[in-house]
Design a protein that fits this description.
The structure is a homodimer of 230-residue chains. With 230 residues, chain A is of the alpha+beta class. Chain A has ten helices and eight strands. The termini of chain A are far apart. Chains A and B meet through helix 1, helix 2, helix 6 and helix 7 of A and helix 1, helix 2, helix 6 and helix 7 of B. Chain A binds a DNA duplex (20 and 20 nucleotides) through helix 3 and helix 4.
Amino acid sequence: MFLRGPLQLSPVARRTYDLPDCGLAVALDLLGERWTLLIVRELLLGPQRYTDLNDGLHGLSTNLLAERLRHLETNGIIHRTELPPPAASTVYELTPIGEELQPLIVQLALWGERFTDGRSVSEPRAAAFAMVARHCGPDAVSAAAPAADIRTGECRIDIDDYSIAAQLDAGRLRARAHPPAQPVAVVRTTGEVYRSLVNGQMSWAEAVAAHAVHVEGDISQLGALFGHLR
Amino acid sequence: MFLRGPLQLSPVARRTYDLPDCGLAVALDLLGERWTLLIVRELLLGPQRYTDLNDGLHGLSTNLLAERLRHLETNGIIHRTELPPPAASTVYELTPIGEELQPLIVQLALWGERFTDGRSVSEPRAAAFAMVARHCGPDAVSAAAPAADIRTGECRIDIDDYSIAAQLDAGRLRARAHPPAQPVAVVRTTGEVYRSLVNGQMSWAEAVAAHAVHVEGDISQLGALFGHLR
DNA sequence: CGGAATCCTCTTCGATACTG
DNA sequence: CAGTATCGAAGAGGATTCCG
C-alpha cells in the first residue's frame, strides 16, 4: 500500500488532486466524487442500512454505493455497526467527523435552492432534510442556538402517508428518517401545509388556528420547533 | 436545447442527478464535478485570466478548464470581462452568486485540514486563501463580523519572494492574488512566520516584538487584520 | 503569448446480472 | 439483505495543434 499522508487511498491509485497540504483539495479527495455528499446527507438523518441508501438515492448503482461506503469508512467519516439480533442487520452511520459536515451540506443545499424549480418536499427524507436546512439556516450555521433552554423528546411528524422524527435538544435540531415507537408528541398534516411551514410561508400559530395541523401530546414542544423555522 | 428547469445543461445531456427539486443535488450538478470548486476558490482571490487559472491548478488540463469555465458562466456563477487596452485580456471573475460560495469553501477547507499533513502555505494563492480561511473561521461563517468599524485600504503582504493583497473592510476580509500598485501599508515576513501568524501559533504583537515582521505604512491596520486571526 | 479545440488513452460511471 | 462481477458509455488527463 502506498499511503501519502494520513489520507487513505485505495490500493490501486485513486484519482487524487495530490495536494496533501491543501485542506480543500484533501476534502474534495474524500467527498468530491459523484454521490458521496448525497450519501452523507442521507446519513445525517440517522443510521441507514445498505438497502435504505440504495432506495433513497435513485440512480446510484450498487457497485458505486459499495465503493463509496468503503472509502468513507476507511477514512473515518462513517462506520459500520452490526445491530444485535433479532434485527441482525448492518447499518452505516456518521462518525463525529462525518457529523461535522451537516452545516456545510445545509449551506450547499441552501445555495443551490435558487436553481431549483421550487416545488419541493415530495419524499420523507427530503422533508426531514428540508426541516433541518431551514432550522440551521444560512445564519445559524454553527452559530448561536436560539432558545437553548428548550428540550424535548423525539416527536413524530406525519406528512400525508409518511412519517419522520424530529428532536429539538438544547436548540439543536436532529431529524431522523425513522420515527421512534413512543414519540412524546405527534403532529399530522399534509405535504402542502408542511411545505408552507418549512418554507416560512405559514406560521405555526396560523396552521393551528386554521386546523391545518392535528396535534397529540405536548404541543408546546412542537410549536417551539416550528416556531424556529422562519 | 433541452432545458430542465432553470439549471442550464449542455446541448448533449450532461450527467445530472436529475432532482430539480433538491437544492443539494442541483448545487452538486453545478459544482460537484472534478476541479470546479478549486476553480471557484482561485477566483475568490480576484479576477484571473485563463492562464493564471491554468498555472494555479496543477494537473487540470486545458480542455477541462475551458469546459468548466463555460459551464460556470452559463449558470451565472462566473462571468467573463474583457479588460480595456492596453491590457486587452479577458478575465474571469465571480458573480455575486459565486461570491456567496466563499464561506462554504472555507468551511470545506477547514473540515479537510485535519486530513492534511500539516506543512502548509508554500504558494501565494495558498497563503492568501489560508488567511481568508482563518479569518472567516468555522464560527464566523456569515456571522457577526468582529470589529466592524475597522476600515482599511488594500495592504500588501510580502512573504519570501511573493506578494498577496489583503483588505479588511467593515470586518470582511478580501484577499487578492495580485496586490495593488499603491498599498496603504506593506508587511514583509518569511513563510515560516506568516504560517505561524495565520495558524495562530504566534500573535501579531509577538511577531512585531521579535522583529519577525517588517512594516511600512499604517501598522495599526495590519495589526487589526492579524489580530483577528486566532 | 493567451485562449482555446482535437485526438487519443485511461479511468470512472451506470445498468444489469449474479452470489453468499 | 448486502453486496460482487461484468461491460458498454461517458468523463478525465495529457499532448499536440490551431487561431488571433
